[in-house]
Amino acid sequence: MVERIYEDVVHDTIETGDEQLKIIVIPRSIAHTMINIVKEGKLTIDLEVMESSKLHLFIRNMAKEKVHIEIKGDVKANAHVDLSLLDLEDTEVEIDEHIHLIEEGASIDNSMAQLVKTASKKGNIEIKHTSAHTSGHMHNFAVLFDHSNYEMVANGNIEKGAFQSASHQETRVLTLGSDGNAKVIPLLLIDENDVKASHALTIGEPDENQLYYLQSRGLDKEMAMGLLSVGYFMPLIRKIEDETLRETVREEMERKVGMYGH
Amino acid sequence: MPKLIVKDLHVKVEDKEILKGLDLEVDSNERHALMGPNGNGKSTLLAAIMGNPKFIVTKGSITYDGKDILSMSVDERSRLGLFLGMQYPSEVPGVTNSDFLRTAINARNEKPISLFKFIKEMDKAINTLEMKPDLAHRFLNDGFSGGEKKRNEIVQMMLLKPTLAMLDEIDSGLDVDALRIVADAIDTCQKETNMGMIIVSHYARFLDYLKPTHAHILIDGRIVVSGGPELIEKIDKEGYDWIEKEYNVKATREEEKARPISLGSCGAKRSK
Q1: What number does CATH give the domain B4-270?
Q2: Is the pTM of this model over 0.90?
Q3: Residues of chain A contacting B84 with CB distance shorter than 8 Å
Q4: Per-residue confidence at A59, pLDDT binned at 50, 70, 90?
Q5: Distance in Å, alpha carbon of A79 to nearest chain B alpha carbon
Q6: Would an 8 Å CB–CB cutoff place A178 in contact with chain B?
Q7: What residues of chain B have any CB closer than 8 angstroms to a CB in chain A?
Q8: Which of A53, A167, A219, A243 could pair with A197 in a Cys bridge, judged by C-beta atoms 3.0 to 4.6 Å apart?
Q9: Where are the alpha helices (DSSP H) in chain A?
Q10: Where are the domains of chain B?
Q11: Contact of A165 with A158, CB cutoff 8 Å
């Protein structure tokens, strides 16, 4: 098991895979962590984010074979987690994530973006609110090509007593191929009256007027579709703080969605 | 110099024939104003030249620079030098203006444009059109006002440097100041590129600024009369009624379309 304890202000990059990782953020500390998954197998990430601390966690899948990512997290009083997971690999990926907003004022912003080509991607995300004034935002983006398979269960769960909490989720799936398969199940389980909750879901092909507009400026169909899918990845990629890395990842993404031709 | 030649063009939209045998020739450096009552085929002509898939050419030919463009895809026509400034440009949330334009420029060049040169050219276009400097980083037309969208079409034209520009009611949504700015930008662009132009506009003042070299009146799917700037003046004073009488044509009156009202529904319904 690998353990990281962050105190004060910390920037950290971890190369990992097929192991257990424990991350603890000490009260009032700020951690910026980049996790590169470079090895196939099962990776367990255990988060303990203590009161009034902040964790910016960016997980990037770079493994060349199947990975199973399990994330468990407890977020304490007034702590905030910004968690992003970027997956541009054409490999099987399974994600199980359970975040527990355990004390008052805890919050998480959870974003995922996945490029789905031939290998299947499955996700199951739960954000559980057990205290008042907690807030959970989920954003799931996916771009699907031919022969792809994408499944996502997104669950915002507000328990009794977690009044004045907010659970919002947004799932956007762009289908570019003809025989992609997308299954998205948004869930809001709410056992408290005084809360705010919403879900938004779109699954669909690119708008034909948009395609025509882009093509009328000289982009061929592949480039136009590539450009439209860029919009699904950039919100995450913009979160990468290191400028050089951000540009590298962006270029990788643009290449993989076909913006420079296939 | 490339020349556009439209011969006996027939175009239908959703099984309704809109253009019924239209002829037009546009050479470089010329400015052709296309006029006529709404619903008689002006936008249809521009869309058919650009290759909008909703507009079906049933008869006739369109060549540009000697090439049959009807056999080309929309993007090939664009790369050949055609540009259509649209009446209702699409909004593309998630894609920034600068990403879009850089991709569009790269699509027509063998070597990608350097970031430095691109930023310089984009800034110049933004300044010329007196737009807000954050334009490059905003999503393409997303949340733009009508006037901003139209100016953004001209920004694109300045960067893509077409050899034939078609502007479909580019003046609508522009106030008097913006009108002048856009007209000046178009003027500068033509001086740099010698592009030919087809301008659809109802607004005499815009045409005053642009000083077309040719004018055509399109009624019921055909050009019934062509002339010079004096024709524009006459239309501005007397309207189209005299043409209907003199040339024995009847303008198509636009029908009011009943639009279905959507109260919105769960996005999941879009899934297939």
Answers
A1: 3.40.50.300
A2: no
A3: 216
A4: very high
A5: 30
A6: no
A7: 50-53, 73-75, 78-79, 83-84, 86, 89-96, 99-100, 103-104, 107-108, 139, 156, 160, 266-268, 270-272
A8: A167
A9: 208-215, 221-237, 243-256
A10: 4-270
A11: yes
Residue pLDDT, tens place only, A26-42: 999 999 999 999 999 99
Chain A interface disruption, residue of B90, B153, B164, B167, most A CBs within 10 A = B90
Q: How many residues does chain B have?
A: 272
Q: How far apart are CA B83 and CA B168, in angstroms?
A: 11
Side chain identity, residue A36? N
Pairing relation of β-strands A80-87 and A54-61?
parallel
Those residues whose C-beta lies under 8 Å from the C-beta of residue A221, and which sit 6 or more positions away, are A211, A215, B73, B75
Q: What is the 3-state secondary structure (H, E, C) of A130-180?
A: CCCCCEEEEEEEEEECCCCEEEEEEEEEECCCCCCEEEEEEEEEEECCCCC
Residues on chain B touching A214 (C-beta within 8 angstroms): 92, 100, 104
Helix then strand then coil, % of chain A, to nearest 5: 15, 55, 30
The domain limits of chain A are 2-205, 206-262
Nearest to B95 by CA among B107, B82, B104, B86: B104
pLDDT level of residue B207 (50, 70, 90 thresholds):
confident
What is this model's ipTM? 0.91
The whole-angstrom distance between B101's CA and the closest CA on chain A is 8
Q: What is the pLDDT of residues A196-237, one digit of tens each?
A: 999 999 998 888 999 999 999 999 988 999 999 998 999 999
Residues 70-89 of A with CB under 8 A from B: none
